[in-house]
Amino acid sequence: MAIAKNDEPTIRKPLRLWPGVVAAVLLLLVRFVVPIVAPDALIYAVLGGFLGGVAIVVWWLFFSRARWSERLGVIVLMFAALIASSRVIHVSIATGMMGMMFTFYAFPVLCLALVCWAVASHRLSVGPRRASLVAAILIGCGVWTLLRTGGISGNGGSDFQWRWSKTPEELLLAQTDDEPFTSARGSSSPLPSDPTVAEKAESTADWSGFRGLERDGIVRGVRIETDWSKSPPVELWRRAIGPGWSSFAVHGDLFYTQEQRGEEEIVACYDLTTGKPVWMHRDLARFWESNGGAGPRGTPTYSNGRVYTFGATGILNALNPSDGAVVWAQNAANDTGASLPGWGFSSSPLVVGDVVVVATSGALSAYDLATGVPRWSLPSRGESYSSPHLMTIDGTAQVLFMGGHGVTSVVPADGTQLWEHAWEGNPIVQPAQISGGDLLITTSGASGALGLRRIAISHSPGGWTVEERWTSTALKPYFNDFVIHNGHAFGFDGFILACIDLERGKRKWKGGRYGNGQLILLRDQDLLLVLSEEGELALVSAVPDQFRELARVPAIEGKTWNHPVLVGDILLVRNGQEMVAFQLSLQGR
Questions:
Q1: How many Cβ atoms sit within 10 Å of the Cβ of residue 263?
Q2: Angle 104-106-112 (CA atoms, 0-180°, nearest 5)?
Q3: pLDDT surpassing 70 at residue 186
Q4: Average pLDDT rounded to a whole number, residues 332-343
């Protein structure tokens, strides 16, 4: 018996769209809505967005009901577009987030474009459907070729700009006012001579360098008015500056900082009262990385009538403070054989005795103050962005250094190791000494800080001993330094200010969102002066009973990671694009 043949084509089931739509909605919520509600969760939103994109790909491949040729063809086209786009995007996006920015930002957007295309085109004929697919992929990937990023914030957010827009540094270089610009390596460019400059430079150092004379971020002998509604900070001057994360050294009526201008790394001296440049020293060197941007990371140190500076590529200078003339210069990176770390050399020079000590990532080296001749060096202790720190422990002056392995103590004169305490990580902030001689140290992991640890150090005829007292995650500084006051530590636990007791490391309070900002302590007034990552100034009580913000005002535009400086009634703040001086009202005046 003959079997009848059915010439009717097989009817294909329609696309199953709803799982893709659900995945796309969840992706949108996690990636774009969550950061608005909880800015601190941005890094998790970025990761969640990427996983949402993966879910969309799984839906398309296994649950969409599309023809297999179409399923595979679309995925191949998507990844081909990502690979092609990665070759033409701006270098800041290509290298951002340690090379992962484009993948984590573009992939979810492209997957959203896939869902939109599938929904909009599922009833179109083959030709328009394919054309709309190409358009969706071009839009999903092509937009990234039009952008650049000015860096990332502490919570991982990116500062996206149009690719063709000028950076603040480019706008500064286009100015032709009172700042002559030359490209001669190692030169200094004094501005028209001022007979009082030499006299000003010889004044006693008011703020000798990074975080002050003792590198503890403490201001002594100053009391300010805290009711800023009645006595707000008065702006004295404001001026553009080259990029960099340097702070200030202040001596009399002059102050010193570091910045980047084009292919030259700058050490600059400015007048404190006017903000006008006095001289600029230039080295033919440029460091740049996508996350933090361009420029030096260290802060000048004033000592013994000299200004010592350390650049992001390893250049160590000793300069005359009145005109910027080079006394001597060395390349510490070459001397130690250190490799340039991902965020650049970040050490601020430490002057102790007759040597100046710098850290080239995890390696320490010391140079003769008078001649610059190398005196001693210490092999690398793992990657680090911390600075050497002078302390006296059990009656012995010693240089402490936070390396990737933990903390090491050495004799300043010859680098002989005294003691060591292991705590592996990626340290950035400075150690702190507690009343009684114990130390607080911190380190960080790949995605942020691990916490604080209190250690006790003692010396006996048998040598040095180190004992861990406690380790706490109640205060987790990342690259934001903390201060010690009246038996408590105050600092940033992530993006929020926090206070812990030093007896057990228990948290007393947590409050106030200031991003990845910096702070200093007005010791005589139990007062924290906080400079937020967004450039706001805030006053917070440095007391353990509860968090109390007394005042907050806007101060500076742009991402701000630089340490503020208060000298008398003059407050200096800066970031990678501008610096400002404010006059604060003092109590009793």
A1: 12
A2: 110
A3: no
A4: 91
Determine the pLDDT at residue 589.
72
Interval 369-373 mean pLDDT? 96
Tokens of 523: 């010791």
User: Buried b / exposed e across 385-411, counting CB within 10 Å, b at 16+?
Assistant: bbbbbbbebeeeebbbbbbbbbbbbbe
Q: Where are the beta strands (DSSP E) in 404-462?
A: 406-410, 417-422, 432-433, 439-445, 448-460
Conformation bin of residue 436: beta by default, left when phi > 0, alpha when psi is -120 to 50 = left
* First-to-last C-alpha distance (Å) of the chain: 116
* Confidence bin at 294 (pLDDT 50/70/90): very high
Cα 407 to Cα 35, 232, 350, 419, 430, distances in angstroms: 36, 42, 17, 9, 10
Q: How far apart are CA 572 and CA 207, in angstroms?
A: 11
CA R_g for the chain: 28
CA–CA separation, 582 and 492 (whole Å) = 24
| Interval 507-528: pLDDT, tens | 999 999 999 999 999 999 999 9
Q: Are 374 and 330 in contact (CB under 8 A)?
A: yes
Q: How far is CA 232 from CA 229, 254, 513, in A?
A: 6, 24, 21
Residue with tokens 């390696």: 363
Per DSSP, helices labelled H in 312-411 are 332-336
pLDDT at 196 over 50: no
Among candidates 538, 348, 522, 480, which has minimal Cα distance to 530?
538
How far apart are the C-alpha atoms of 236 and 280, rounded to whole Å?
22
Which residues have a Cβ under 8 Å from the Cβ of 493 and sit 6 or more positions away? 474, 475, 476, 477, 507, 510
Residue 192 has pLDDT above 50, yes or no: no
Two structure tokens written together for 287:
């460091």
- Under a CB-based contact definition with an 8 Å cutoff, are residues 382 and 362 in contact? yes
Chain-wide mean pLDDT for the chain?
Answer: 91
Q: DSSP string of 87-156?
A: TTS-HHHHHHHHHTHHHHHHHHHHHHHHHHHHHHHTTS-HHHHHHHHHHHHHHHHHGGGGEEEEEE-TTS
**pTM of the full predicted structure?**
0.91
In the structure encoding, which two tokens stand for residue 247, read together? 């702070």
Measured CA to CA in angstroms, residue 91 lies from 124, 138, 575 at distances of 39, 20, 22
CA proximity to 404, closest of 383, 419, 389, 428: 383
Angle between helices 101-121 and 91-99 (to 10 degrees): 110
Strands of the sheet containing 249-251, edge to edge, are: 187-188, 277-284, 264-271, 254-261, 249-251, 205-207
CA atoms within 13 A on the CB side of 370: 2
Q: Which of 574, 500, 478 lies closest to 531 in space, CA to CA?
A: 574
For 379-513, strand residue ranges (E) read 389-393, 396-403, 406-410, 417-422, 432-433, 439-445, 448-460, 463-472, 483-485, 488-493, 496-501, 507-513
- SS3 category, 73: helix
